[in-house]
Amino acid sequence: MARLTVAHFLCVLGFLPKALPALIETQQTVTAALRDDARLTCRLTQTKDVVQITWHRLRHAENTFLASYTEKYGERVNPKLERKVEFADAALQRTSIVVKNLTEEDKGCYRCMFNTVSEGALTGQTCLQVYELHEPVLRVGGSDSTVVSCWATGRPAPTVSIDVLQKDLQLVANGSVSVANSNGSVTVNTTAVLSGHPVNGKQVVCTAQVFSSSQTTTMIFPDLDEEPEPESRDGLYAEESGPSLSYICAPLISLALIILILCLVIFRRKLNNKKNNSELEKKMTSERPQDDNTTTPLIEEGTKAKRRTPFKKTPSRMSPSRKSPSNPLTLKPRELFFNSGDKTNCPKLECLNENC
């Protein structure tokens, strides 16, 4: 006690050095869920002559450049990480970056560096933890419905606990079982036995926690006289396993009925069209004449009248006294020439035949 008093007295007098405040203020650990965004911030507690700010990621002994800022050139981001990292706050005394759509590869420590003219590089560091946590599932089992089970899946392995809200009920923990999944996550199943009666209408709370993040599920004990709800293949209640089967089947049945009605309508139309075409073809066939060589009554009557009319010879234009020669060879060539053409302007020909 005396030594502490002396040390405090010397510190007040200035003989012992005082602890210097941190020049860079930052959050040592940042936790964020998988596929979320994380914001990392560094801030100078004192004003310095800063000319440049840079961010690096330290992971597996690798130092990866992320981004930098200067008043002259502004913000610069690693071209390979343009969709991953962006500035949220760019200034010479304070800087913040956002790491988007977090994956397991993004966890690690990030270093912010303030490059000054007089004091060199001032460095701060913050570490990012990426977690995965799914909503816990609570179930009541056993012959007397007094066994309570709760499980949750997360990365890293979550902490699963079961509690009751009523003071007249107690839970005796039986233990937890962890199962590693192929994707790196872990499923933890915690089981407890409920003591105290009656349990009808009592509430049980299951909490799953990873780092500072937690998720809670609450369930009310069912009536012991009622039949338990059927379980799915995964051991979950039907209402916990997903949407009811009726909600899935109803739209499918409606769609099938609509398709069936459309098919019936199309088939009926095709059948009617085929029937109409058949009737039209029959009608056209009945109206078509049986024999193409049969003549109409009018033509037939004209033919008969023509047959009854005697043939009359057309009188010859030549005078009876001047008959045409029976043998054309007796005519002169000139006469043959004019007889074959127009006779109106022909000169009067002399007949060489004695019978002219």
Key traits:
4-stranded antiparallel sheet; 5 helices; disordered N terminus; flat; 356 residues; Immunoglobulin-like; 10-stranded mixed sheet; single chain; alpha+beta
Structure, described:
Among the domains are: 23-132, Immunoglobulins (Immunoglobulin-like, Sandwich); 134-228, Immunoglobulin-like. A hairpin with a 3-residue loop joins strand 7 and strand 8. Helices cover 22% and strands 36% of the residues. The protein has helices at 2-13, 238-241, 245-287, 297-308, 333-339; strands at 24-26, 29-33, 38-44, 50-59, 62-70, 74-77, 85-90, 94-99, 108-116, 121-133, 137-141, 147-155, 159-164, 170-180, 186-195, 203-210, 213-220. It starts with a helix and ends in a 17-residue tail after the last helix. By secondary structure, it is an alpha+beta fold.
SSE diagram, text form:
Elements: H1 2-13, E1 24-26, E2 29-33, E3 38-44, E4 50-59, E5 62-70, E6 74-77, E7 85-90, E8 94-99, E9 108-116, E10 121-133, E11 137-141, E12 147-155, E13 159-164, E14 170-180, E15 186-195, E16 203-210, E17 213-220, H2 238-241, H3 245-287, H4 297-308, H5 333-339
Parallel strand pairs: 2-10
Antiparallel strand pairs: 1-3, 3-8, 4-5, 4-9, 5-6, 7-8, 9-10, 10-12, 11-12, 12-15, 13-16, 14-15, 16-17
